[in-house]
Amino acid sequence: MAFFEMAKTAIGTVLRKPATRRYPSVAPKSTPLTRGRVSIDPSRCISCGMCMKKCPSGAICVRKEEKTWSIDRLKCIVCNCCVEVCPVHCLTMDTSYFPCVTEHRAIDVHVITYVKPERPKRPETGEKPGEGTDGSS
Amino acid sequence: MPRRIVVPFGPQHPVLPEPIHLDLVLKDEHVEEALPSIGYIHRGLETLVTKREYPEYVYIAERTCGICSFIHGMTYCQAVEKLVDCTVPERALFLRTIWSEYSRLHSHLLWLGLFADALGFENLFMASWRLRESVLDVLEETTGGRVIQGSCKVGGVRKDISGETLERMRKGLDIIERDAGEIADVFLRDDSIVSRTRGIGVLSREDAYALGAVGPTARASGVGIDLRKTGYAAYDKLSFSPVVETAGDCHARCAVRVKELFTSIDLIRQAIAKIPDGPIEEKPKKNPEGDYFARSEQPRGELVHYVKGDGSRHLVRSRIRTPTLTNLPSLVRMLKGCNLADVPVIVLSIDPCIGCAER
What is the overall mean pLDDT for chain A? Predict the structure, then answer.
C-alpha cells in the first residue's frame, strides 16, 4: 500500500505546478500590512525631526538647514516606528521591499518641499509682543 | 591501545548554522569529553537599553533572536509593564497568546526541518519548511512581519485582528493540523529517523533537573516544567497540559516538539474562541521605576528578562537569560560517550540558538 501512496505522491508532484513563485515575472507575495520600506511625501514633511529622534537604529537624518530628509536603507530595520510617531503622517510604509544593492551605500536623500503656509493677517492692529507674523523660513 | 585526539567542531559547520565551537576529545570514535566555547557573535544588545528610550527598546529586544522574536518582545514588555504599573487589556493578552503560539509553531517547524536535514532527510526538511511557510503567511498577514513581528508594545499590542481574519485563521488551522499530522507521523515512526535518534544522547531525569535543563530538553527527560502553566498573558484562561516524554534521548526531544505543534494549534483555537472585545492598549502613566524579572516559555525553554529603571525614560539595566545558555551543560553531558557521527544530531536536539544566547 505504501508503494501506491508513494507513486501517487510522485505523479502528483510531477504534474502539479511548482510550489514556489517564478519570482521576477510574478510579483512577490505581500499583504496590506507588510512592512516593506519607508517612503516619504516631501511636500508634507515639516522637518520636526521626531522620526530621527525615535528611530531605534539611527537610520534617518533630517537636516533643517539644508531641507533634506535622508534614510540609510541598510541601517533601517523597517520597524514602523517613524511612521507611528510622524505628527503630519507624511511617512508611510510601502509594501514592496527595498531592492538589492551591490554597493554598501544606499542612502536615499529627499529634498523637503514643504512650505509653511502664511498665517492670515489679523484684522485688528493691536500686536502682541513675541508673536511673529513672518511666515517664511 | 586507542589514541586520544581532539577534533574541533564549529563554529562553522555544515549542519549547524549557529556559531558554537566544541572541542571534542575522542577516544577512537567515542567522545570522551566535549568542551564548548561561545563568544563569536556578541552584539551588546543589553547595553543598548541605556541608549534608547524604553518604548523604543522593544524593537531591539525583539531582534535578540530571529526565531522567537515575538516572545522576546513580549517578555520585555511584561517586565516593563510591571515597572510602569500598567494593566494590559484582556484582548491584547489574548492577541499576544495567539502570536506567541504561532511563533512556537514556526519555530518548532523550523527546528524539525533542520533536524531532518541533519539526519540527511532532505525531503522531510522541505515538507516541514513548506508547512512553516503557511504559518509565516498568517503572521505576515496579521502583524506585517514574517519573523520580526513588531506588534508588541509596552501596554498592549500595536495591531488588532478583525473577527473575519480570526475566522479565516481558525479555518487555516485545520489545514495546518492536517499537514502537521502527516509530518508528525514520519518523525515519530519512520525507521530511518528512529534508528538515528533512539537511545542517542540520553539525558536522565536527575541530570536534566540538576543541570538546569529547560523547555523541550527538560520535558523530554520527564521534567514537566512549562512556564506557560504560570499563567502569563492569557494562558491562565486556556487549558492545556505540558507534553512530557520520559526516554530523554534525541527521539524523545523530537517527539516533544512534534506533539507541541498540536498543543499550540489547540491553544490558538481556544484563544480565538475566547477572545473578548475591547481596547488593545493602555498608555503607561509614568516612567519605569524599580526592577522586575519577567519569565515566559519560549519554543526553546524558559526565557527571563530582567529590567531595572530609575524613573527616567531610559532603563538602567537589562539582562536576558536565554534557554540555550541554560541547556549547554545538559548538552555537554549528553555528548559524553556518544559516537562522533551522532554529534551533529545531539547538538541540534537541544535546538541551539547561539544568536540569542550571546545577545
Answer: 80
pLDDT at B311: 84
d(CA B180, CA B158): 30
Cell numbers placing B147: 519573523
Exposure string (b/e) for A56-94, b if CB count within 10 Å is 16 or more? bbebbbbeeeebbbbbbbeebbbbbbbbebbeeebbebe
Structural domain includes residue A64: yes
Architecture field, domain B42-353: Orthogonal Bundle (1.10)
**Residue B334 burial class via C-beta count within 10 angstroms: exposed 0-12, middle 13-18, buried 19 and up:** buried
Chain A contacts to B (CB-CB under 8 A): 19, 29, 31, 33-35, 54, 56, 77-81, 84, 93
pLDDT in tens, B113-160: 988 888 888 888 988 998 998 999 888 889 888 888 888 888 888 888
Nearest beta carbon to residue A56 from set B52, B143, B159: B52
Prediction pTM value: 0.85
* Partner residue facing A56 (CB), from B56, B137, B158: B56
Domain range spanning residue A97?
42-115
Q: Where are the beta strands (DSSP E) in B150-288?
A: 152-153, 156-157
Q: Are A70 and A51 in contact, with CB atoms under 8 Å apart?
A: no
- The mean per-residue pLDDT over the stretch B217-221 comes to 90
Pairwise CA distance, residues A41 & B156, whole Å: 30
B325: its cell numbers: 545558555
What whole-number distance in Å separates Cα of residue B286 and Cα of residue B300? Answer: 34
CATH number for position A101: 3.30.70.3270
How open is the CA angle A119-A121-A122, to the nearest 5 degrees? 120
Compare all CA atoms of chain B with the CA of A80 and give the residue at the minimum distance. Answer: B150
Q: Which three cell numbers stand for residue B233?
A: 498573558
- Which residues contact residue B327 at a Cβ distance below 8 angstroms, ignoring those fewer than 6 apart? B213, B214, B215, B217, B300, B301, B350, B352
A47 sits in the region (left: phi over 0; alpha: psi -120 to 50; else beta) called left
CB nearest to A35's CB, from B56, B137, B144: B144
Would you say B222 and B228 are in contact if contact means Cβ atoms under 8 Å apart?
Answer: no
Residue A130 predicted with pLDDT over 60 = no
Domain boundaries defined on chain B: 42-353
Quickly state the pLDDT bin for A129 (edges 50, 70, 90). Answer: low
Structural domains counted in chain A: 1
Give tens-digit pLDDT for A20-53: 888 888 888 888 888 888 888 888 888 888 888 8
Amino acid at A54: K
Planar angle of CA B299, B301, B304, nearest 5 degrees: 110
